[in-house]
Write a structure and sequence with these properties.
The strands form 2 sheets. This protein has an 8-stranded parallel sheet. A 7-stranded mixed sheet has the order 2-3-4-5-6-1-15. It is built from 10 helices and 15 strands. The protein is globular, with a radius of gyration of 19 Å. The protein folds into 2 domains: about 5-115 and about 310-330, ornithine cyclodeaminase, domain 1 (2-Layer Sandwich); about 120-305, Rossmann fold. Helix 2 (about 20-35) packs across helix 3 (about 110-130) and helix 2 packs across helix 10 (about 305-325). A hairpin with a 7-residue loop joins strand 2 (about 40-50) and strand 3. By secondary structure, it is of the alpha/beta class.
């Protein structure tokens, strides 16, 4: 039997690639297009909670993307208190496989991929569902995914005003300063969620709550607003879905199951259901359903994060690693 190898791509390899905003967005958008065209398999995400006292859990995401000819499994640890020991709140790996033989192709550091694909999904949601003239962004949360939310959204809208707020002032202020330096425009760190969100054209809730707390008030959602709540623990009011003209998700199968998610309570109560759901984003990307139809619509986009998006970015990085001579080959057997 011939020797078998696969590639390991670490965080330093990915950093050397200098992935562009356009590359990140295209990879994720292509995976949404494949989803909308029925060229994927998405398995329900699973959760592993080793011990509730650790205040964290693992998510296991699985999928297959036919146009890329690759299957993948991502395991991501989500630990809210990791900052206390100098670790990211989310640490992840994605393993890519040949779907015809089961042969491992690559193991890719997925920590930054998780951040990138989440930001890309938020931005692509806005591309199809927000007003074209959005000028003000309000963003709750400064965790890892928050950076790419703001950077990729701004790459589309070039906001006149960006406001951020989060629970810990030290991380919030650092986040705002790094964004200001990167974007070349002021990013305001504000005192509370009302100052952050009220009057914003796009509201993003990406908090790291331990227990539910209504930080995004329904009354602030005025006609034309685009709202993206995706924290693990709910930070919205129960009435939020009542004012929406359209509700869109990344994958209904992922959103209607599991114990976590910003709108978990709304699903359980039937406020968000197969009947009240307007579309999955992939259906809009593929042209099967319409996105925003007028400037007065209040539209909500809830994304849980899809294996397809992780696999698409993992595949992009694996291909770039091969082309650039990066990554480490590991003897498998």
């Amino acid at each position: 039997m011939k020797s078998l190898e696969f590639m390991f791509v670490n965080a330093k390899d990915i950093e050397k690639m200098n992935l562009t905003n356009e590359e990140i967005m295209k990879a994720v958008e292509d995976s949404l297009l494949a989803q909308g065209n029925g060229q994927v398999v998405i398995e329900p995400r699973e959760h592993l909670i080793p011990n509730p006292e650790f205040q964290g859990h693992f998510n296991i995401l699985r999928g297959y993307v036919e146009p890329l000819n690759v299957a993948g499994v991502k395991v991501v640890g989500d630990y809210v208190n990791n900052y206390k020991i100098g670790l990211p709140s989310e640490l992840a790996l994605v393993t890519l496989y040949d779907p015809r033989t089961g042969m491992p192709l690559a193991i890719v550091d997925c920590t930054e991929i998780t951040n990138m694909r989440t930001g890309a999904l938020t931005a692509l949601g806005a591309k199809y569902l927000a007003r074209k003239d959005c000028k003000v962004l309000g963003h709750l949360g400064s965790r890892g995914t928050a950076w790419w939310n703001v950077v990729l959204l701004d790459s589309i809208f070039d906001f006149e005003e960006i406001r951020v707020n989060s629970r810990r002032p030290e991380s919030m202020n650092d986040f705002a300063q790094r964004l200001s330096d990167h974007l070349g425009k002021p990013v305001k760190a504000v005192e509370n969620s009302e100052e952050c969100l009220k009057g914003a054209d796009i509201m993003v809730e990406a908090t790291r709550l331990i227990e539910p707390q209504a930080l995004l008030k329904t009354e602030w959602v005025t006609p034309g607003t685009f709202v993206v709540p995706y924290g693990t623990i709910s930070a919205v009011e129960f009435s939020l879905t009542d004012v929406m003209d359209k509700m869109v998700v990344d994958d209904w199968g992922q959103c209607k199951g599991g114990k976590f998610g910003s709108l978990r309570r709304h699903v359980d109560a039937g406020k968000l259901s197969a009947e009240t759901l307007h579309a999955e984003l992939g259906e809009i990307v593929s042209g099967k359903k319409v996105g925003r139809e007028n400037d007065e619509e209040r539209i909500l986009f809830w994304h849980r994060g899809l294996s397809l998006n992780d696999i698409a970015l993992g595949h992009l990085i694996w291909e770039k690693a091969k082309n650039l001579g990066l990554g480490t080959m590991i003897e498998y057997r």
